[in-house]
Amino acid sequence: MKNWFLNLAFLLFTTVIFAQSGVITGEVIDGDYNAPLMGAGVQVKGTTRGVSTDMDGKYSLKVDNPTGILEFTYLGYVTKAIPYKLVNGKAHLKVTLASDQQNLGEVVVTAKSSVIDVAQERKTPVAVSTIQAAEIVEKLGTRELPEILNRTPSIYATKGGGGFGDSKVNMRGFSSKNVAVMVNGMPVNDMEAGTVYFSNWTGLSDVTSAMQVQRGLGASKLAIASVGGTLNFILRAADMHQGGNVVLNYGSNGEYKGTVSYNTGKSLTGWSASVLFSKNAGRKYVDATQFDAYSYYFALGYEPSKKHSFQLMFTGATQWHNQRYYSPSIEDAQKYGGSDDKPNRRYNSDWGYLNGEIFSLKKNIYHKPVAMLNWDWNISESTSLSTVAYASFGRGMGVSGDGEAYNGGFQRKVQNGVTYYNPKKTTFSGLRTPDGLIDVEAAIRYNKGENVQGLQRITTPGITGNSIQLTDPLGNKHYITEGFTNIASVNSHDWYGFLTNLKHQIDDHFTLNLGVDGRYYHGYHHRVVTDLLGASGFATISNKNLTVPNVIRTTVSDKISFNPFASITPLENQTGWSNDGEVKWAGLFSQFEYSDNKFSAFLQGSTSMQGYQRVDNFMKPGTRAIRRDPTTVMNTKTGFKNIIGYNIKGGVNYNINEHHNVFANAGYYSKQPFFNAVYPNNKNFLNQELTNEKILGLEVGYGFKSERFNANLNVYRTTWKDRYETKRNNIILPSGSSLTAYANIFGIEEVHQGIELEATANITQYLKLNAAISLGDWFYNGNAKSYLINNDNQNIDTQGNVLTGDVVPSTTYLDKVKVGETAQTTAAIGATILPPVKGLKVDIDWRYVDNLYANLNVADFNSKANADLGALKLPSYNLFDLGASYKLSLTDKQRLTFSAHAYNLLDTYYIEESYTSKHATNGVKTYQGISVKNNVYFGPGRTFSFGIRYNF
Length: 952
What we know:
The protein is mainly beta and 952 residues long. It is built from 7 helices and 56 strands. The longest helix is centred in the N-terminal third of the chain and has 17 residues, at 2-18. The relative contact order is 0.10. Residues 8-19 and 100-111 have low confidence and may be disordered.
């Protein structure tokens, strides 16, 4: 008996000694907000073994020793070192981290759903920057969400025209059309043109848990157009911890925003819910940019077991906002309310007064609700299936003042030795008061048939839109469409899709992902009348199926609507154009991954087939695309043109030790062209030189991480070949008349290469620094070929003569011309000062912009001389922002946070964008070295915002 007892004791003792490995699970909580900390680092102290928390703040970490110390880190929070001890190979640690008020920006690592591709620090071999919800809350103020990205390398975000939601973002020199924008793994780029209008996503700043910028090819498994990179918004989960908040923000120019939200937390039966509602209204910095917007969010979660998790999310924003659509010339900004050295940065040429009230000729109205249903199924310990089904019903339009009036007589001009005449006329935008505003009341008097100084009376009083024929001294005929009308361009859509990913953990090191991506998009594009401006009807001959002009007497409301299923305006009340675009998408993707403590690698491949169909409701069936060619007969529906695209990419990361890592990635895309390249020139006629765009990306990087200093350095090169653009390019004929023509440009190639550095440093307990710098070299490589096309799709020369036979393309001289629209050199430094006052924090941010080039019309580069001039380089500038916040704890769960911000603290005058590239010549007046004839958007002057937040 005694021997049996000793043997058993010895067996138990040796089992304990040799059972070294095990698993530690747990959760990391934000002590300030009582919410999960997504992306918190969990690492075995003194080793490279570690993981990061998922969307719910949870983690699972394999360890080799029965006892040890885990370090819990999260940038902006106090690091904790917690000892652990395995019992039966398991341990569970729930840790709460307290804020040390640092700047928050560390990388989010993983997410619960495998359809959300979030890069992992020191594992995923891509260049990445992450902005957490806490930083959005603390630094955004009354700015728009893309603007907070300006502290990251190779990002250039601007306010665009300055209207609410009109902000723009460029990444590595690529516009948002070629940056994949994702919301919880769902692609949201428009399926026809790739555009993303942030005015349709104004509620994102309220519901985003983290925003990750993946520059370059990115970590997404999908066949998406991440030419410049990926911008991934990860939204709050329904099962966040119980609690809520009330937020009030007030800014310059009378702008205000109020937000209320509440999370139930997860019940014992697995149910949870999260709701949010906000209202934002006022005016932006630019004149007459009033707006009114509402955003909402509802998420319902259900987790019946550890195997299944469901989340239904419904979010959207409904808004209207006045715009500054046309960029005014510098000389107009100097003339109207400004001076030579201080132009009027607020000047907006798109509005006037009517009955003493602001009347904007440019207005955007939109409502884009999105519904998503996520299902995560843990089939086994090694296999999971994540699926999301989604739908969006966008309804809205952009209103624009339209029309013209005949002044009487003709204006004689000489161009390239050719004399020609244009009728003297005044457009709606040219009907101005002495202070540079639109004379709306004069337009109404004109429409009614009354006398307006400088204009001949309308031929058909009360009916606008009719054309009059005029003959110039050379016998050429001209047409003027009389009257002024507010007309809206409708761009609505129905969008459905699903995405599913099967993830299988082959063993401790190898993982396989397989998935399917399906989408269908139907876009509705037409014009409608929103205001007859004193007239009783608007005449239109746009619908070629009608034999007589159609007079529209019914206007469409330009007020916002919460109804996402609003019907499309009847055909008889449409004008200008009426066409639909349909896009079908079917994709397959796979990714193979390897990972251990030091080395990780992935190989990804995907393919997709896009089908494009154009429907022209105004075209008469049987119309020829090329008038003299009977083989080019067009139908109302084109039928679907299916085009296959694919990509393949891979990367490796090596952790040299706990401080240093290096990575590299490479990939190739064969990307389907946009819709207008498939059916160019607004016709149901297939592009005869249709080809996929080709993108090759290469990148290498280095990372350093320590307790006091973190840095990431990377070098990249992206080549983008076989781009297509079509530009309107009217020409003057030898007779002196004008001919509408299009320049179809093929074979455009761009090279985007550069160096990026991002770093953070804990100087002392009172001072934290972050910095970013990017040095880009983005240019056109080689020349392109182009064809000049008339309205009948016939090839013509520069004299308007129709060309037959084998047409030799013209040369578009682009070689070595700089890519415009964005800054190629940016730098930023931020300092967080923590005075010895509990809860107080001060932020100072500096940003530098250089090598900023004007937007280009590549059709202008039809000569070597123009290419030698290149893109117009805009003046560099420096900006400073100042912010402060104070947190006051009321109870363990209740807290007040006060914040204040000053943007452009020194009230610097600077140009954010130029929409023309006019070089200064002798005798031309200049501003900061550039011609005042250029049409630009000035950046806003000094503005302020104040906020108070109550958490409970």
